[in-house]
Amino acid sequence: MAEKKTATATTKTAATTKAAVKAAPVKKACATKKACATKTAKTVDMTVENIGFRAGDVYQTLASEAQPMTVAQIAKTAKISEIEVLMGAGWLMKEGKVCAAADKLVLA
Questions:
Q1: Residues near 66 by Cβ (< 8 Å), separated by ≥ 6?
Q2: Which of 9, 32, 58, 81 has its CA 20 to 30 A from that of 20?
Q3: CA 65: distance to chain centroid?
Q4: Are 54 and 88 in contact, with CB atoms under 8 Å apart?
């Protein structure tokens, strides 16, 4: 009889341990801090006025360079974020002033 009680106690302990492992969140360790760094999203002011200004920045950059440019190139040249470039480009596309050719933006 003692053996049955031990087997039952072992089974209950194993089941409890499995439940505890499933409930606990798993955190992964990183080799370097750089790999673990979380990206913080830059907050962008999503007002009509701000998007209009960004559209102006995108248009001026494309006009001054006089060649098709990628979103990253426009962001770097205009010193704005890629999100702001995309918002401005959307505004200009709706007005018919900019078109997308392959992966680049070009004045229409």
A1: none
A2: 32
A3: 28
A4: yes
What single letter denotes the amino acid at residue 22? K
What CA–CA distance (Å, rounded) separates 47 from 40? 21
pLDDT along the chain (108 residues), means of 10: 54 53 57 56 81 95 95 95 95 95 92
Nearest to 56 by CA among 78, 76, 73: 78
Please say whether the beta carbons of 99 and 106 come within 8 A.
yes
Q: What is the pTM of this model?
A: 0.61
Alpha helices (runs of H) in 1-108, residue ranges in sequence order: 2-23, 33-36, 48-65, 71-78, 82-95
Structure tokens at 66: 């006089």
DSSP code, position 38:
P
